[in-house]
Specification:
The structure holds two protein chains of two kinds.
Chain A lengths: L3 H10 L2 H23 L4 H16 L2 H14 L3 E5 L2 H14 L4 E4 L3 H5 L2 H7 L3 E4 L2 H9 L15 H11 L9 H18 L2 E4 L3 E3 L5 E5 L3 H5 L6 E6 L3 E2 L2 H15 L7 E5 L10 E5 L3 H4 L16 H5 L1 H6 L10 H11 L1 H4 L11 H5 L6 H15 L4 H15 L1 H10 L8 H4 L20 H9 L1
Parallel strand pairs in A: 1-10, 2-3, 2-4, 4-7, 5-8, 7-10
Antiparallel strand pairs in A: 5-6, 6-9
Chain B lengths: L1 H13 L20 H11 L3 E4 L6 H8 L6 E2 L26 E5 L2 E3 L5 E4 L7 H4 L2 E7 L3 E2 L2 H7 L9 E5 L4 E2 L7 E2 L6 E7 L2
Parallel strand pairs in B: 1-11, 2-3, 3-6, 4-7, 6-11
Antiparallel strand pairs in B: 4-5, 5-8, 9-10
The chains are: A alpha/beta, B alpha/beta.
Chain lengths: 455, 197
């Protein structure tokens, strides 16, 4: 356990007004999700099925990947396999170079964040334009997403208004979200029309048909692929599912769980390039996934469909924001994926959990997120990432709680601590007193009270 | 292809317990006593409009009444005679920019979420997204209850067999301070014309 997350959260909590808004906003999204879930009698049955489909699929991925690739190639697509982020970036750059691409528009993809593709391509002279409004905002701002579905949630309309005044020449002082969305629409329209290539991620890959399925509310994946002559789709291995019957289960749950809508506006199936474009490229990316499947406690994180519902409900995420986590995906799923990626770098995040298990109660595919976080905590000492101060405290507690004599002596004497003057107790030297006042110890411990009551 | 073999080999070496595919035939999915009424209700709730076309009513006249200001109308549907642009014959998809109204055909609607299945049936699918306003002609009798039924039914076009999409209402976003705004990157309004059988 470490204090890395709580230290980072202090920054977030400096602006209390915003912190309250953030908490309330995500609670409202969680409430919308509940209304959707309660509106379907079969919701819990769907969760069971979704979990079982994913368990089956990710433990038979070799067969489904092979089928998917075969189908996609039959459809006329060119399928690439990337073992890691470096190879992925090189493959994408190669394709773009072959087609002499100067500018690429792209729809939201957490995979390209994971592989840090944009900076790589930009270093090689390719302009990359994000077209999801939230992603575009943070791209213009030079920031990273703070939520996987609502990437610019850490900015308010004044922040965006000032950004657009500077970058897109919007009217001074007009920070109305409808107006700002329109300004972005006009600017992005120009990008769609002048880009040489369009890239999409993929919510699902369908093994039986070779379809890449992309769900958006804005229609930006469809716009990104409607004018440019080249479409590259990038998906992680675990996004492959068997067939349309399975897709129906996930399509019904993804948006209901994530944003509380009955569906995304667009659920688009890309099977091959449009008749006037070059063949479509699909890049299947491993980047650790084929290792993670072997982790006995944590392989089920691969079931995740990236709806974001675990972070929306998480009391720690809601009150600390996406930037308090060290991994680029925050919240419960990010804690677990970060640990699979690099235990040394991301151990700090496992402290960002109260073990309330709300995350795994809402997760549409039943990833045991909180249980996994608990498991990670048990392993910190093995990783050498346990906090020495807390380790010492645990040893002390082990001694006190392990011996009846010491425990009783301790509780009977604890009230003497009450007479220590407050400035000495409630100071920076006592980590217990940080953020709250030191408690008063009772004169009579519970055991004594209980004995007296019995008489 | 070295990476393909590497990846699959590593995966096969690492995968542990294998799980069976669940039976999906027993999903008790929601159905509606009147799927059409539910479809209309859902379309309105996601920000779309619905107009029932009467037997013998001229769709062209109706579109003109709905969008009196429209100058550029794009469609490849044979019954649309007011089109000024045709997505089958334009030189480039870019030429569809500036379309005020795009008119396309939907195959069926889904009552639970207002999705309409739209397989690509034109050379440039841009018309479905680039138009400021989208009009979808949908047979009134073609409404299914839920996505399970929908996915049993979807088909791609024989000629343009590379793309199809479900559209539910106009393009939207809440990416600025969680305020819902219609018309992000694609159509700013969506009207479903329910066609008589």
């Amino acid at each position: 356990m470490s204090t890395q997350h709580s230290k980072a959260a202090k920054e977030f909590l400096k602006n209390q007004k915003y912190a309250k808004w953030h908490d309330a906003t995500f609670w409202a999204v969680r409430t919308k999700r509940d209304n959707m879930a309660y509106g379907l009698d079969e919701w819990e049955q769907l969760r069971e099925k979704a979990s079982a489909i994913k368990r089956h699929t990710i433990t038979h991925l070799d067969e489904y990947l092979d089928l998917f690739a075969t189908k996609a190639e039959e459809n006329g697509c060119i399928v690439h396999w990337a073992k890691d982020a470096k190879e992925f970036n090189e493959i994408v750059y190669d394709i773009l170079k072959q087609h002499n691409v100067k500018k690429m528009v792209k729809s939201k993809s957490m995979l390209t964040e994971e592989c840090e593709m944009n900076p790589y391509l930009e270093a090689h002279g390719i302009e990359v334009v994000e077209t999801d409004l939230g992603e575009r905002i943070i791209q213009l701002k030079g920031q990273k997403p703070s939520h996987i579905v609502m990437p610019a949630i850490h900015l308010n309309h004044d922040d965006v208004g000032e950004l657009f005044e500077e970058k897109l020449g919007s009217e001074k002082g007009n920070h109305d979200p409808t107006y700002l969305t329109y300004v972005a629409r006009l600017s992005l329209r120009n990008e769609f029309l002048t880009a040489d290539a369009g890239m999409t991620g993929g919510n699902f890959g369908i093994a039986e048909t070779g379809d890449i399925v992309v769900c958006t509310n804005e229609g930006n994946a469809d716009m990104s692929t409607s004018c440019p002559k080249l479409h590259i789709a990038a998906i992680g291995l675990e996004k492959i599912i068997p067939n349309y019957d399975c897709l129906a289960v996930f399509q019904r749950m993804l948006c209901r769980a994530g944003t509380g809508q009955p569906t995304t506006t667009f659920t688009s199936h890309f099977r091959k390039a449009r008749p006037t474009a070059n063949p479509m490229h699909i890049v299947l990316v491993d980047n650790g996934r084929s290792e993670w499947i072997g982790n006995p406690e944590h392989w089920e994180s691969l079931k995740c469909i990236r709806c974001g519902s675990c972070m929306n409900t998480c009391p720690v995420y809601r009150r600390s924001g996406g930037y308090s986590y060290s991994y680029f995906i925050p919240g419960p799923i990010g804690i677990n994926l970060g640990m699979l990626r690099d235990t040394q770098q991301h151990s700090g995040n496992v402290s960002a959990c109260t073990l309330c298990l709300s995350c795994q109660t809402v997760c549409p595919v039943k990833v045991n997120l909180g249980d996994q976080i608990y498991q990670w905590r048990q392993q910190l000492d093995d990783f050498g990432t346990a906090n020495p101060q807390k380790k010492l405290m645990c040893k002390g507690m082990d001694m006190i709680f392990g011996s009846e004599g010491i425990y009783n002596l301790g509780t009977s004497m604890a009230h003497w601590a009450n007479i220590i003057p407050s400035p000495l107790m409630n100071c920076g030297l006592n980590p217990w007193a940080e953020g709250h006042k030191m408690m008063e110890f009772p004169k009579k411990p519970f055991h004594t009270l209980f004995e007296e009551l019995k008489d | 292809m070295a990476s393909k073999e590497d990846i699959l080999k590593r995966y096969r070496a690492n995968v542990r317990e294998k799980f069976d595919m669940p039976d999906l035939s027993d999903i008790k999915a929601i159905t509606y006593p009147n799927p059409l009424a539910q479809f209309i209700k859902m379309t309105e709730s996601v920000g779309g409009h619905v107009v029932e076309v009467k037997e013998g009513q001229d769709v062209n006249q109706l579109v003109k009444e709905l969008y009196p200001e429209a100058k550029e109308i794009a469609s490849n549907l044979p019954e649309i005679t007011i089109a000024t642009r045709n997505p089958d014959t334009i030189e480039s998809a870019r030429d569809l920019n500036g379309t005020d109204v795009g008119i396309i055909r939907g195959k069926f609607g889904v009552a639970e979420n207002a999705c309409v299945w739209i397989p690509q049936t034109m050379k440039e699918k841009a018309v479905c997204f680039i138009s400021e306003n989208l009009v979808i002609l949908l047979p009134k009798s073609a409404i299914v209850n839920n996505m399970h039924e929908a996915y049993k039914r979807i088909e791609f076009d024989k000629e343009y067999d590379g793309y199809g999409t479900f559209i539910s209402g106009p393009s939207k976003t809440a990416d600025i301070a969680q305020v819902l705004v219609m018309g992000a990157q694609a159509a700013r309004s969506a009207t479903i014309l329910l066609m008589p059988d």
